Amino acid sequence: MNRRFIYFLLIAFILTLTLGIGCEKDNNKTTNVDFLTNGSSKIWHLAKIVTIDSTTINPPSCIVDDEFNFKINGACLVNNMGTIYSQPPIFTGPPFCKDTAEIIDNASWTLNAEMDILTFSTAKYGISGKILKLTTDTLILKRTYSSSVIQTEYYASKKQQ
Q1: Is residue 89 reached through a cis peptide bond, with omega within 30 degrees of 0 on the bond before it?
Q2: Is residue 8 in a domain?
Q3: Total domain count, the chain
Q4: Tell me, what CATH number does 92's domain have?
């Protein structure tokens, strides 16, 4: 065989291998499910609320300590820590707090096909919102109750001790 032909085949093989590896699809892309659950389970809490008129509501400590534990299987444990909400929880004003034992609700959650609408529901209430931002430590939801009640809710992930 001709040396030029062998070199040509070797170069063609190397180029094909390089292009194949370089163009390989990234199968490890992080999805909203991964961000929400950290691959198994993740706890979130409400940090602040901004109303349609740009008023910022900083929830009292009894609201901030509420935990939403999203699990990869679509379950969610909601630990309200004694917070009493109006039905459904619309934060046009801060909910009031009541010193009681922890109230733990079982919930389920889903994301739509585009993974930008988060819906979760307990036996007592349901929440649905457009995901404006979701990272490893930030969840921002825009929730619309009516044309006059639209609010943006900022959640933070609970830091693991």
Answers
A1: no
A2: no
A3: 1
A4: 2.40.128.280
Report the DSSP pairing between strands 67-71 and 56-57: unpaired
CA proximity to 134, closest of 13, 63, 50, 31: 31
Q: Are 80 and 105 in contact (CB under 8 A)?
A: yes
| CA distance linking residue 148 with residue 62, whole number of Å | 27
**pLDDT tens profile 93-119:** 555 666 555 678 888 999 999 999 999
**Which run of H or of E encompasses 56?**
strand 56-57
What is the rounded average pLDDT of the residues 115-137? 88
Phi/psi region, residue 63 (left: phi>0; alpha: psi -120 to 50; beta: rest), is alpha
The pLDDT tens digits of the residues spanning 32-82 come to 999 999 989 999 988 888 888 888 888 777 777 788 899 999 999 888 765
Q: Is residue 101 part of a domain?
A: yes
